[in-house]
Write a structure and sequence with these properties.
Strands 2-1-4-5-8-9 form a 6-stranded antiparallel β-sheet, covered by helices on one side. A 6-stranded mixed β-sheet has the order 10-14-15-3-16-17. A 3-stranded antiparallel β-sheet has the order 11-12-13. Helix 8 runs antiparallel to helix 13, helix 8 runs antiparallel to helix 15 and helix 17 packs across helix 18. It is α+β, with helices and mostly antiparallel strands. The protein is built from 20 helices and 17 strands. Helices cover 70% and strands 9% of the residues. A hairpin with a 7-residue loop joins strand 8 and strand 9. Among the domains are: 201 residues, Rossmann fold (3-Layer(aba) Sandwich), CATH 3.40.50; 121 residues.
Length: 1020
Amino acid sequence: MRPLKLKLQAFGPFAGSEVIDFTKLGVNPLFLINGPTGAGKSSILDAICFALYGQTTGAERDGAQMRCDHADMKVLTEVSLVFSLGEKRYLIRRVPQQERAKSRGEGTTTQNPEAQLRELDGTEDGRLLVSKSVSDATAQVKDLMGLDVEQFRQVMVLPQGKFRELLMADSREREKIFGQLFQTNIYRRIEERLKTQAAGIKHAVEGHHNEIKGILQTAEVSSEQEVSAAVETLKPVLVTALAAKQAADKKHQTTIREKDKALALQKRFDELANKREALTAAHAIAPTIAQKTMRLTQAVQAQKIQHHFESQRSQENQLKQLKQQIAVTKDEWVQIDEAHKIAVGESLRAKSALEGIDELKTQRTDLQRYEGLLSQLLEVEAQLQTRKMAATSSRQRCEVKQRDHQVLVAEREANQHAVNTLSTALEPLPAHQVALESLTQKFKLRQELETLRSAAAAISLNVRAAQTALDQQTDEFEQARLNANQTELLWHSGQAALLAKELQMGEPCPVCGSGEHPNPAALQLGDELVTKEQVDVARNLQQQASNRVTACKDEFDRVNNLKTANTTEGQQLKASIAGYADQSVDEMAEALTVIQGEVKQLQLKQIELQQRNRRAVEIQKTLASDLELLLTLETTAKNDSDSLIQISTQVEQSQQQIPQSYRQEDHLNKTLKALAERIETTIQTATSAEQILLQKRSMLDKIDSTMAALSKQFEDSQMQADRALEAWMRALQASDFIDEGTFQSALVKDSEQTTLQGDIERYNSEVTSIEAVIEQITSELHEHTTPDMDALDNALTSAGELLAQAGTAWQKYSERNSLLVSVQQKLQKAHEKNEALEKQYAVIGTLSEVANGQTGDKISLNRFVLSVLLDDVLIQASHRLHIMSKSRYRLVRKEDRAKGNKASGLELEVEDGNTGKTRAVATLSGGESFMAALSLALGLSDVVQSYAGGIRLDALFIDEGFGSLDTESLDAAIRVLIDLQQSGRMIGVISHVSELKEQMALRVDVKSGPSGSNISVQAA
């Protein structure tokens, strides 16, 4: 997280609205938050923390207590922060609970807390993530940052008096912080998953033990041995009970078969009795069947002559229908003949009226000619009216254009006077523009000079840091050189001693050539022989130290050259802006603003002059155009007057050709319309009368033809009816029927005949079937008697009781045996499953104990991973602490196990280079604790960034603590912060130490006053 812009309003000591634009401090700035005690330096950190989490850095005050006492009741206390996370930017705004003035009326009202969070995605308002909820905003920030408020205070903001908290935290607290920072929750989940699985397996094992007890209880035994003994004891008893059950079952089946035979025999005796009763009932309805037989015979005879009877009836009915149709047709003929006579009279009258239609058409032709003349007259009168209006309009346009021409002439004279005035006023403009360009160039050079002066402080710090590093590396090189020389000297001495061991008296020395060896070299007691490899190592260390000295010398030359270049460039700029070098940027800006205003005013007059000149050209063009238009309008007006006279003469001539009575268009149209309707009516009447006459004549011819056809059809039908009556009478006399009434009584429908025939056939078939069955059953039962069913029922009951007793006894022993066998099988499965669980627990349980820190040094998997990460942090932290403490202190992790059940593995100790021993961090002094806490925070920031676990620690704020350092330690701390800043971090320091103010050109100054504090940013 990197803050970009902070806005405070009525917050802390700030009564109004204050804005800190961190981007003005440059990229990855190292800056000082400076101001007197109580001015509100720490309130800036409180505002950042409050904007993100709704809490202050020290947690002593809540948001409602941060309202400024000097603020107006109408001003709302609020904090907004624009910050970046990677490539994304966000805006968060918070308003704490407070009393504010009512929007209407007097008094105050309670303002509830609220918060808004937006992602600034390039749109006008950004994407709204949280609209009002305070808790939702805090949760969102926590998810984005990957830190809660406590962790934020410990790794990104080191509040006043809070330096020792992260340093002094125990293993459990540090585990929580590091777990969140490095996202090691996966190891915690592994621990919990293994613990849950192990507990589940253990619970399952205990459950199976209880299951075995439950299985034994179902068999009412206390051990598995009792189950086996009971099974063996029950085997012979079960065999005996089964044999008794099988014998009883056999006897019971025999008795059932005997009863079934008796039931079948009894059923045949009962069936014989039923059939005899059915035969008696059939004989009782024999007379009814005889009557149905007689009726069926008569119906068959009547059906044979029925067609003669129906033919005679049909011919008689047809003859009656023809008589009725002839009577109706005669009535229609009378009506049509009367209508025909009327149509003849109407046709004669219509022809008479049609003879006078030619005279009406002649009248219509005359009226149509008058209509054309009247139309022409109206058109000419309309043209006359249009010409009158055009002539009037032309005269009016001439008058208007003459007035416009006079106005433009007056405007041309006034515009020329203004042009002359502006030309005189613009004479100083070139001189002012030259002065403005010169002053603008010098102002830019003055700003560059100010930038160089601001950079000079940072360059001076870099020069001192480079000089210190060069001195240190020079001392290290000198030490390495002396050590290498000493090592090589010892090696040479050792080689000489080895060579002296081989010398023999009288033999020449390989070094001096002498045969005498009065004082040969020898190793001193306790000296170790130095090897050539040790010499090479010492020389390599010397060369490495020499390389570091060269690098430091290069760096010192580079920053010193920068300082020289900065000084030279500053002197050149001073010479370039002679006369302004001692004048402040604000004073030069004010003078530049004045001359810019004067030039701007002259430029505005110049623009006005250009507009006046353009207007003069436009007026001249318009005047010339207006003169041409005026001549055209006068010509048009004269032409309109001549046309008006000609059209008036034409109107008078047209009026003389039309009679006075037809000069009104409505009257002429009505007369012409009435005449046309009269002609049309006469023609339509004649046509309609002729059509009606033809229609009536056609109808009369058609009815005459119909009467002739009906008469012929009646004669034919009469002859057919006579022949049908004669045939029917012959058939009736030849039959057994006395008369027509007897014949009709014998008639029966086909469906009824079918019913009678079926009844007769079913009766005969049923009687025959019953007699056959009686004969068969009688033949079967002639050697049998009726069985004694009561005796058989008693025998079957006795056999059933005996079978039930034997079955109950066998069932009892069988169920007991099945229960015991089932228990044995369940016990076997339970033992197999329990064995598998115990094998599984041997693996999972062991892993769970190891992962959850229940064995050995009591260090869990998560804490083990964090201890490795902590070692990385301590390497980085110790490097900085070693520099700040002048090579005395290093931070190390305590590896001894804590006493009791207290969590261990993440405690810290400090290694003291002066004593060569480690001791608790609590033994450090105030200044030493500050250096150790600062080193730990910086090391943690480095490692978190390198592991890139989704958490970005791009900024660090330090509130006080530098006052407890001596001068050398302060310089060392500043060098560390500069190195960190150059690696891509924003570092903000709150301090009263005057040396920091001198060394840091970038500052956020907080000034206090009687009505509240205010903030200003001093950028390079």
